[in-house]
Amino acid sequence: MTYSGPRLEDMQDDDLDEVCMSALGDSIQYKVEGGAYAPFSAYVDYGEALRDIETGKAIEQDITVQMLKSDLAARPRGADRLTLGRLAGRTFKPVNIRSDRSGTHWEFEVVTVDA
Q1: Which ranges in the chain belong to alpha helices (H)?
Q2: Across the chain, which distance is largest between two alpha carbons, in Å?
Q3: How far apart are CA 93 and CA 80, in angstroms?
Q4: Domains of the chain (ranges plus CATH)?
Q5: pTM of the shown model
């Protein structure tokens, strides 16, 4: 039997991206420099990285965020700020900003900053 229905690559349009992000994304607040915080959904990977230091190895947070390009008017910048729903009371800034493989999302790591 041959499958003749839609394929995943046929469904990767802006509508599907927004629906998936709304259903599966994590809650964040994002503020462009000089603006106010606004709520968004984003894919947040709360991973950890192993870092070598002189006295041994340390585990540190290695958080990666993916936001729809259509949600932001411009490319994220280091002067922007965001908060993550799972890490209340902490403020972050985007670093290592790049486009994801699909070209529809901004992908970046975050580092903690003073509010």
Answers
A1: 14-24
A2: 61
A3: 6
A4: 9-113 (2.40.10)
A5: 0.76
